[in-house]
Amino acid sequence: MIIKEFRILxxxxxxxxxxxxxxxxxxxxxNETGGGDGVLVLENDDFTSTxxxxxxxxxxxxxxxxxxxxxxxxxxxxxxxxxxxxxxxEECWNAFPYCKTVIKALDLSPTLLKKREVIIIDIYDxxxxxxxxxxxxxxxxxxxxxxxxxxxxxxDWIETTKxxxxxxxxxxVHFKMFGxxxxxxxxxxxxxxxxxxxxxxxxxxxxxxxxxMTIEDIxxxxxxxxxxxxxxxxxxxxxxxxxxxxxxxxT
Length: 251
Fold this sequence. Notes:
This protein is an alpha+beta fold. It contains 7 helices and 7 strands. It has a 4-stranded antiparallel β-sheet. α1 crosses α5 (181-205) and α1 (14-31) runs parallel beside α7 (215-233). The chain is globular, with a radius of gyration of 18 Å.
């Protein structure tokens, strides 16, 4: 098993990040869905639980999604595994600022804390991305918010900009199949710096699109997106990101 803790620094307040995250998840799902691959939302409901985070009673939004990922997976894995292996079910309990899915957990045991690798992600850093990931609309060096006055981000923005917050993402990948475990775990973990950097860049650069939205506005948008995703996944055009591994299975 490989475990990494990603610390993503963002020029936002905590409550802003919550709204921006919900907005960006919905928009990114649409951008990544088409040609049979992408996201389908099965459930999106309020929840209250004392078991998701032991010792705490939390409320938030529960989602159950299906990710169809074959075209976004490495060539080597597509050759080895059947189509069913690329259909992933995700359950997520989002009680911001605590969020837990089947692959994320922040309440780690002392053993896992010792095993984890900590990685700092700076959304200013272009080296985490492919050229195709950076557009004029999502370039943090050029974006300036009309509604907040924030931006353009300088190279030393972490030291010179306010506000600054940190989003923690702990990812555990455990693939149990003899002969393939190490390869698959490393390939999957190599994707996360790019995924987190791209997503959070877009979240920030879309500030003026979500800044005035309430949670109810975003929930309405999510309901509309659920229906839109059903249509998009049936369309022939594939959309969005592909795995950061070339056709020979190397980075």
